[in-house]
Design a protein that fits this description.
Elements: H1 2-39, H2 42-92, E1 97-100, E2 106-109, H3 111-116, H4 136-141, E3 156-158, H5 166-169, E4 174-182, E5 187-195, H6 197-208, E6 211-218, H7 221-226, H8 233-250, E7 254-257, E8 262-268, H9 272-277, H10 282-287, E9 300-305, H11 311-327, E10 333-337, E11 340-344, H12 357-372, E12 375-379, H13 386-401, E13 405-409, H14 418-421, E14 433-434, H15 436-442, E15 447-452, H16 463-467, E16 471-476, E17 490-493, H17 500-511, H18 519-532, H19 542-553, H20 558-564, H21 569-579, E18 583-585, E19 589-594, H22 602-614, E20 622-629, E21 632-639, H23 645-650, E22 655-656, E23 660-666, H24 670-687
Parallel strand pairs: 9-10, 12-13, 12-15, 13-14, 15-16, 16-17, 19-20
Antiparallel strand pairs: 1-2, 1-5, 3-4, 4-5, 6-8, 6-9, 7-8, 10-11, 18-19, 20-21, 21-23, 22-23
Helix pairs in contact: 1-2, 12-17, 13-17, 13-18, 17-18, 17-19, 18-19, 18-20, 21-22
This protein binds manganese (II) ion.
Amino acid sequence: MRDTNRKQMKMTRHQIDALIVEIVAAVLLVADLAFVYFNFYPLYAILASVAIYLIVLVIILIKNTAFKKTMRGVAEQRNSAFENLTLECVRQLYMPVIICSEDGKVIWHNEVMSRLRKGLTPAYGQFLDTFCDATLDKIISGEGSADEDSKNEDGVIVHFTDSTHAEYHLGKTFKAKAYSVRTEDEELFMVVFREITDIVELNKELIDRDVVVAYVVIDNVEEIQKLEQTVDSTATVEINSILRRVFEDELHGVIKENGKYRYICVFDRENLSVLTTNKFAFLDDVKSASKDSDSIPLTISVGVGANEGTLFEKESFAQSALELALQRGGDQAVVKKNEELAYFGGRAKTAPKGSTVRSRVIATEFAQMIKRSSNVLVMGHKNADYDALGSCLAVSRIAKYLGVKVNIISDVNDENLAPAFARLKDPEYDNLFVDAVEAQDLLKSDTLTVVVDVNNIPICEAPDVVANSNNIVIIDHHRKVAEYDFKPNIQYIEPTASSAAELLSEFLQQLLPPNALPKVEADIILSGIVLDTKRFSHNTGIRTFNSALYLRSQGADPGEVNEMFKTDIKDLIREAKYENSVVIYKSVTAIALNDNEDNSPLARISAAKAADRLLTVNGVQASFALCKTNDTVFISARSQGSINVQLILEKMGGGGHFDAAGAQVTASSTNSVLKQLKDAIDEYLEENK
Ligand SMILES: [Mn+2]
């Protein structure tokens, strides 16, 4: 580029010279003309001047041509020197180089290329793709390049494919890149092959020899300690030696203690298959390390980070795999490889999915407590509902399975539970239900008393029985209201669970063999979940569906469960009384009144149902149903989740949950209570602006 510029500049200077010469010649000519004209004949003057002008022109022409010739000569000399040099470089280059025509025919190749294709030289006139696994077009476009981002930058991976002389290039990998070379009349391509065999092999070896990181924890130590059991120290020693055997002797890796009951392990990726093919069998060895049958067996969870990448990335993968193993209930291994997850639950049986470590540990402890007792008494709350009854039945089934005598304290004449009791016709249930008085007679020093679906002892079915018991277990899903003046042996209170039936279903799943739960019990337990979740629309989590799935697998029939929820005509009329009096208050709450109710225990239930139904009205975030019987007004409140009805009714002496609460007020008319309620709502909305 710069060369041509300079050339152009010189030519211009030369033209200026010529111009000056021409001007001088013209001046001379005019002077000469004037001289001759005045001294001789005009004809001579014209002839002489034309002659002089012609001579000048010839001189200029000759000068110009000579200059151009010289310049061309210099340029030509330089070009041929460069061409020779370039060709020599390419020829001697250690990399194979081929020059092809546009259609991929070999025109020229260097010596390295001929050495590479020994005995086949020259390949002139052959098409590139007859001895190479890529066409010229593919190499030019960079298509199929290993790295899509650096398309055509780095070249295309190719192999020489001539089978007759395979031994000279077998297994060698090249990256080919094409450069366009333009001559005057055609476009040629110079293809340069860069050998990357070593890099490919090294990369493969690196991946093979790549390490994986694993975390191992003894997952139930904390839960065991919460139950005030001591951790079996001989078992922990035994587990330690099992882990060393597996990770050091079998996997030839490294294992280091990384906190209490927690280990970090590093081993070669090629050994990971040792673990996966026997499905982490050592999980079972660990479980049997706790030989003392009286204690809860220690179990471990394993998280393996088997992704490619830095050690740091692998460690964080191992960490998240471990968390997943723990969330899924522990006693299992999770291998995380990029987006892929593999679960291993030991050989003996698969770990129950969805439930927590806590659920599993407590179920085991609960079963052991039942086994140590002479008999079991189980009860729900006063005015029991399906959740309470279903949970009682679940506990009784566990006790029966473990061979321990069991009774449920319940009012068999409760109208509200009639559809359920109507189903328990089997003689097996004849002597199962007792009242609070009978229960007192059954209470012995080694009786286990189980309270389900309630944790506030004064409102349970038989508070006196609880007060006189030595061994108490409380299983509930309501938030804990108060501390106890006694110490329950097990306190399993999980406010995140939808229902007590959900928690007990997990226990059944863990403690009972498949198909040991009678269909009728599965139906009633499922009805408990259906009731408390308002048909799976409230407080429903993964564990809720997991429990429902289990109950369904044991024969629970949603259709028959639905039958139990059917209202009779009296209920319908009772509930209809609310409908005429609905008012929307403060645009987000709905209030309904029922002024003339008979003094039936069903009155409160009708209020609850009315409040439930009001919540289905568009825009209503909280609902209140007021029901008057004699001198008492019952209030049932429900919330969609944004307004805390518990706080509102607490202002009126009531209580309950965030989304379901109740109160009873002594009053002669609903109107005065309505006024109080509106004040409470105002106050709450003011406080929670
Ligand atoms: Mn409940």
